[in-house]
Amino acid sequence: xxxxxxxxxxxxxxxxxxxxxxxxxxxxxxxxxxxxxxxxxxxxxxxxxxxxxxxxxxxxxxxxxxxxxxxxxxxxxxxxxxxxxxxxxxxxxxxxxxxxxxxxxxxxxxxxxxxxxxxxxxxxxxxxxxxxxxxxxxxxxxxxxxxxxxxxxxxxxxxxxxxxxxxxxxxxxxxxxxxxxxxxxxxxxxxxxxxxxxxxxxxxxxxxxxxxxxxxxxxxxxxxxxxxxxxxxxxxxxxxxxxxxxxxxxxxxxxxxxxxxxxxxxxxxxxxxxxxxxxxxxxxxxxxxxxxxxxxxxxxxxxxxxxxxxxxxxxxxxxxxxxxxxxxxxxxxxxxxxxxxxxxxxxxxxxxxxxxxxxxxxxxxxxxxxxxxxxxxxxxxxxxxxxxxxxxxxxxxxxxxxxxxxxxxxxxxxxxxxxxxxxxxxxxxxxxxxxxxxxxxxxxxxxxxxxxxxxxxxxxxxxxxxxxxxxxxxxxxxxxxxxxxxxxxxxxxxxxxxxxxxxxxxxxxxxxxxxxxxxxxxxxxxxxxxxxxxxxxxxxxxxxxxx
Length: 547
Ligand code: GAP
Hints:
By secondary structure, the chain is an alpha+beta fold. Helix content is 36%, strand content 22%. A hairpin with a 7-residue loop joins strand 19 (432-434) and strand 20.
């Protein structure tokens, strides 16, 4: 029986297969690893490159047809990982890109305060009916004990309880009331909060009171540029690829003959010193992003937001991910990042979130926040003069003020921002298919286009001219496809190895090949075999892979 339900796939098994077959290894493993860092092995690199190339193809080289029936215009970029540090002041990352962090003095472990609720418990009978929700509120109230954040805590609490099928009644949740107050107007004293903290038992200890109060922790990795290590030489590894695009907006505009609306796309590494990297490569400290900034006239931005939202879902489905494992989640107003007017996440049902979903990509309406910030901080004008709008306004007989108002503007930005390494995780989870009926007990059901190896080429036995015929076919095919020749072990073992690698086809040269020029092609998913002429193998593969 094959298993496709994410809730029945084990992350431990997926991680083990990734290591066993060379998809993903812990970074610097021989030195004990480094938390939050991963190395992509030969198959993982090929899988990642295939996803990367498909995103580039569908974003830059062959982007979708826009809502008006014309192809949209998007150009590529590869900007520096380290930029002038003023970039990150302007973008808001120096002041605001932080997570609340809590240390345990006993276990010496560090946690993200807003994720701690899953494991920590409050002792004391008074708080026994404690609910995971309440601990989130503990940290919330502790960190930002003001009216606005308490009101937010109320809204979050209400949403959480309703989502779990309950009716929200704060008086039923003693510790919630204790912290957030019976109503959001009420302050919570520092003594009360200290007392509560003293009763909390952290996830990796038995003693209460070993957790420190949360404090803000900036997620950017710092480094120094040049020989002198002082404040003036401080720089940052980029936490997102997006800002490199904003910094080059004028360069692209002045060199590429693009006009509004248009996009700039970039794929590259980003770095975040995450407080608690977790769930394999889901949240790591070094990862890759695929981001596109779509610049448009402010009035057109709602149309483009809707367009990119739908296009991005189409793209994820084109990877072969089943639609029931994908969904949209619109951000509530209180969740929006400081730069964002509207945001929707594309979410995936990961085995570690199932039956719930987790973030895969964000499509954000960033307004004119970034370009305005860079205009202010760099004193470089980012305004766009829109000749076409000017002409249309003139033709419509508008006044000079009206014409100026529509033809000069700082563009708005719609940003589809996804993680390439997170996409790798999604394809690994989606493809992982336990199947008791086959020797490998599992196979990786990648859509052929994304499979690291497209075909295995096997001589049935290493004699009677079969290895030579297989070698010739292999040399021909490798000009076009990632193929692998395997002569070792019995054919069943070779199939099993390819099943675990997710190779969609195995081509076997046997005794008949030498007499009638036919080979068997074994299909990974059905395990069925068909005989075709050796001269048709290339066409067969290209038809299957390009689907
Ligand atoms: N420029 C906007 C931006 O960076 P984000 O939601 O912080 O937005 C976009 O990141 C995407 O990058 C996420 O949806 C996720 O796929 C990926 N991502 C973010 N942090 C990550 C991490 N620590 N590890 C792996 N992927 C991450």
